[in-house]
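Q: What residues go here?
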């Protein structure tokens, strides 16, 4: 009983500590100054295969239509080309260019390969790189620009998943929404972030050119990790904002969910392995140890008092997540049971990431032997 109590205290304390650090960030919406979006070019590498693609792309055109857009589609992706053509016809007033891209060569990140083709078309002051499943918010764009104005080399947003239909989609959203606030914001509060979320980030165009970003990070499979390392090595700063951007990915099966989570955990493992020893130990203790503590608590219950204590601990966990989501996302996006199951599953996915080296990236299968050693299959 005494050991169970100490483990419960340790698990609850680390969770509340991260929540306290995250909650120190302001969640007040930011206003996008009139005309400021006209200084922005939004670049998106587009790949078909998700049923929400067209509505997500159109939402960005409607939200920040005064920005310029560059969409990058594969030459063999007829569905993405058709969607882009239809949206261009519906929104003729938007400054929108569609670039049809050849396949990336082996050893070059597919997203970065496309971004290099976009750079000659970017004429505005700020370039914002947005994933094709991400809906940029006006408040989020204002925060990104504010971060750059404050001296950051790169500014990134806070991901918030809006689930599509079906349980697999809802579980994916649960995983991200439970993790993002307690991962990105505490690290940003403690000091300069050493990583970034690549779903939506902003840089000044001249900085992209100065750092020769496509050439420097193209050979790395995890482009956001390579970009963060490049910016920090050059003496730059990363700004993690607390304004959300909304992501919708339709997950059509449990297998699809497993493939997505596997890809993310492979990338997370590569990020951990790339860190200096002291930082790597800190990341493992802060984010790898809690699921193991939870497993230990669940497997060591012997008395009704311990059942009651664990129930109170999980209730506290659920209430804390609800509070953080309401503060930063504007509403509670949390299912307690799904959340617990996903946390218990994290060690399994991390272990699998060390043994299964291949990932599925939409229509591409990629064999990853090292951060800068991968081939298309």
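A:
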């Amino acid at each position: 009983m005494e050991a169970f109590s100490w483990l419960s205290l340790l698990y609850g304390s680390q969770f509340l500590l991260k929540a306290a650090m995250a909650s120190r960030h302001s969640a007040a919406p930011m206003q996008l100054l009139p005309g400021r979006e006209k200084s922005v070019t939004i670049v998106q590498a587009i790949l078909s295969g998700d049923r929400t693609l067209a509505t997500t792309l159109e939402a960005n055109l409607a939200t920040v239509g005064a920005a310029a857009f560059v969409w990058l589609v594969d030459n063999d992706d007829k569905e993405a080309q058709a969607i882009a053509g239809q949206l261009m016809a519906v929104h003729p007033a938007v400054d929108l260019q569609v670039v049809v891209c050849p396949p990336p060569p082996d050893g070059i990140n597919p997203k970065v390969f496309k971004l290099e083709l976009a750079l000659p078309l970017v004429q505005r002051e700020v370039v914002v790189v947005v994933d094709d499943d991400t809906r940029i918010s006006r408040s989020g764009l204002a925060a990104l620009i504010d971060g750059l104005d404050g001296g950051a080399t790169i500014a990134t947003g806070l991901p918030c998943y809006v689930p599509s239909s079906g349980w697999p989609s809802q579980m994916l959203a649960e995983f991200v929404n439970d993790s993002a606030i307690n991962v990105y914001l505490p690290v940003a509060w403690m000091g300069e972030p050493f990583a970034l979320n690549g779903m939506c980030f902003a840089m000044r165009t001249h900085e992209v050119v100065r750092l020769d970003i496509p050439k420097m990070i193209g050979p790395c499979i995890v482009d956001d990790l390579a970009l963060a390392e490049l910016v920090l090595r050059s003496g730059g700063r990363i700004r993690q904002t607390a304004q959300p951007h909304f992501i919708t990915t339709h997950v059509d099966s449990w297998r699809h969910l497993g493939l997505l989570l596997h890809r993310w955990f492979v990338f997370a493992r590569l990020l951990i392995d790339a860190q200096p020893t002291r930082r790597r130990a800190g990341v493992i203790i802060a984010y790898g140890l809690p699921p193991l503590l939870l497993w230990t608590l669940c497997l060591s219950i012997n008395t009704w008092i311990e059942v009651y204590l664990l129930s109170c601990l999980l209730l506290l966990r659920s209430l804390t997540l609800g509070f953080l989501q309401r503060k930063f996302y504007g509403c509670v996006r949390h299912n307690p049971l799904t959340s617990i199951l996903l946390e218990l599953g994290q060690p399994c996915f991390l272990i699998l990431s060390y043994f299964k080296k291949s990932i599925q990236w939409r229509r591409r299968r990629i064999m990853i032997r090292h951060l800068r050693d991968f081939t298309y299959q």
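A: Context that may help when evaluating the design: DSSP finds 13 helices and eleven strands in the chain. Residues 2-24+273-370 form one domain.
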